[in-house]
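Put briefly, the fold is written as integer tokens. The lines below illustrate.
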Amino acid sequence: VAKLCVCDLLVAQCDVNCCCDPDCSADDFSLFTTCSVAVVTGDSRLCSQKAAIYSLDVKANPPERIFRLIDQVNPSVFCIHATNYKQALSFSSPEMPTSENFDQLLKRFGSAAFSAEPDSWNMNTDAPNPPDANETYRYEYGVPVQTVDALLRLPSPVVSSWCSDANPAGFLVNQATKCTRSVSLEKCDKIQALSMLFYINSSILAVNITVQSIVVQSPNGMRTLLNSSDVLRLPMILDELCINIVLGVSYHITYTDAGEIIEAAASFVLGAINKEALSIQQSFEISFTQVNTVPVPLSGNPGYVVGLPVRAGFLPQGYPFPGESLLAALTTNKYSQLTILQSTSNQDCLAVQGSRTPILFGYNMISGCKLRITAATKCQPLTQTLLDLLKGQSFPEYVASFGNSQAQDVLDWVPITHLHTSEQRIYNTFQSSCQIPVSLEIEVKWTKYGSLVNPQARIVNVTATITSSTLKELPSGRERIIPITSSVVFTDISSPAEPGYKAWPTINAKLPFDFFFPFV
């Protein structure tokens, strides 16, 4: 920026009041009255850049020009941190099609999806040699999973619904995609993406991809699981059908806590097409499970996503002795979710016993039923029945603070605080009475965690309050109906801006259409 000067208009001459003009001498600066350009910067979209500051010291005799070079910070949220591709800062002339290069350009840009990256990006002469097939590789979150010859591909739609095979699978990034593939009966056995070999013929470094299961789908949609998955079924034309074409692939990757992939398996759905079929829809999925852990669905990564279940668990017996860990598994719920009583149409508490519904993050919920009490009802069995009804057979002790909290990370789990309150309800004047639980109120306190630009929902406190009522003995022949309720309330306790500091503004901005040019 010290060499940039927008007011330098005259060649080999000093421009008046142009403090950055290299043609001006000290005698010229002494005659200036002001600096027409006081600040010179480079690209204003950069987050941090150099700035040249020009001013005049009029108190000096004679007046002097003052030049300073400072680091300037861009206050905008939308700024470029680093320009790792210098060619993106200027427009390049596109290559014009000619009779000589037409076939080459058509091969590069003629498909439904193509990469705009230059070939030089893929050729790093300073990079070390690729890992040997017998070496292991430690991954970090989001890093593309490497195979011996390239990357593990997970086909997905890009510009349109047509499949692009260039989409790499990211480590620990669970994905599920669907896309459309062009097919023809005559060439079905020659289209690579329709064959099982296309998805398992390359190992993930030292780990071979094994076939876990094969399901065959008939033309009418009926699916049959094959007893043996050892036989490789390749597409082949039989009568007027092409059978054994891949309709779906599901990868399951097992990894260690150090980020090493130790096992990879693929499950296939195979089908058939007739001569009228011009395209098929394929589905692809990939999931990751840490070794020696129970695979459970996540509710966010890392923060909770509104509408997904709150994950919960309990401590095993003997914890915290060495070797024990927090087990996120409920005996009444195989998905490790915090649940409450599920309402039914008949509203009979004894009929809905054992029926639970998961608590969804961010959703305030209320449910309940009606309990009919007669004079023959015994107090102690009734109390235990209502507790089991409200809390379930095994109420969890801990709740995951994040949507992706792992079972072995004990500090990522929040203990549930249990409270008991009583309210007096006198149904008649008999002397004997008992306390029965009538409601369960769960309050989940959460906060926004991390960056202000992309805050993540984190649970910091969970309180379960059981409210009991006094039930006195009923005379013979009489009965009463008591409402039993369960409720969940989510409370945002995110801290506001501290006094004396300027609060962060609400961002409601639209980026310029060419802000990321030439990137999408």
